[in-house]
From TrEMBL:
Membrane-traversing stretches: 21-44, 56-76, 107-132, 176-196, 229-252, 264-286, 293-316, 322-349, 361-379, 385-402
Keywords, in A-Z order: Cell membrane, Membrane, Transmembrane, Transmembrane helix, Transport
This protein's record includes keyword Lyase: no
Compartments where found: Cell membrane
Superkingdom per UniProt: Bacteria
Protein name, as recorded: MFS family permease
Organism: Amycolatopsis viridis
Main location: membrane
Amino acid sequence: MPNATNSRPRALLRASGGPRYAVALAVDALGTGLLRPFLLLYGVTVLGLSAPVTGTTMTAGIVVGLVCMPAVGAWLDRGARSTVVAASMLVRVLGVALLLATPTGNVWMFAAAALFLGIGNQAWPAAHAALVSTIAHGRERDAALAGGRALRNAGLGAGGLLATACLAGGTTALRVLAVVTGLAYLTAAAFAWSVHVHAHPATATKTASGTDPGTAEAGDAEPAPRMGALLAANVIYVFCLNVPEIALPLVLVTQMHASPVWSAAIFVANTVLVVTLQVPVTVLLSRFSRRSVLALAGVVLTASYLGFLAAAALGYGWRAPAIAAVSVVCTLGEIIYAGSATALVTAMAPARVLGRALSRFQLSTGFGLAVSPAVITGLASRGQFALWGSLAAATLLSASAVRRTGPGGHRLSSRRHRAVRR
């Protein structure tokens, strides 16, 4: 049986890095929420760039930012923890500074700013997961990772709401938002660095979760895990994160001509559900193996995609409410995915290569997030069946691949699949 998971707020706070680190996470998320949704508007309205140029530049910054991940993984494997988290925040301070210094019409400085923001955004998840894995172990670590995600979503939502309220100020307000974002990143970096968490891989104990039925967690003597199937599946799984932000607004507003209020309501509901349910759902499912839970997430997401397809076939007055209802199922799948995916990677990887494993996982996540907007819009242009049918088929195939690979990343035969679980 898995070890008990303590989800009491005080214990969860300690396992997540302590009060100062929680403040760092909250302030960093608040700053990101202030600027991230309006970076495109900043490029268009403040810098006078065209929307296609701005969007392409932002996407390029995200993709090129992924190049830093091998170096981040190697840095983490040398024992750095809070230093890497703080560095990921300071890099974004530099990005905001470049953004504020960019003259009107200068696409290259905007590209440099987008690159540094992209590097910080890509490096942070792996560094955060490594820090939490150094402090907490087993299922307590899973709950701590879930708590960090809930806190981050709350900060992102609050930042987004504050930024929306400030948009009436026009270009001046956008510049002020950028300044506040830079200060938030700088403050968060100071708090994160002050935690002084450092690992010693050469003498580290095994990162023993040993809590999944039938397995023990990877030890230092084991080779780096082969995660090809998991990483490939993760590229598809991560599409679910862009469904509330891109797919549903695209379908509801441009194809069904529904009121934008529906899209806003779905986005708010998604944020509230993640904040309130991420930890309880993760704790509830801790009695099952992480790999099984991750496969379950794929099944739930597949069901939601098929639900969206069915909702699109309803009459005009029923489609938007039906899609809103199905979005709750999609959010549940997202919560199950987020609570098990990173946890599975940290359980699979020996302590000495944890950083590299997390950086590889973040590469797959970042790639999926980068390509999903183009894939979603391309499929949506071909109709509802092309969009939701393709996502359902790809996600179900990914869930099957996750379920049928063993702890070391090897494909299991049907007999071994019944005997080996993680």
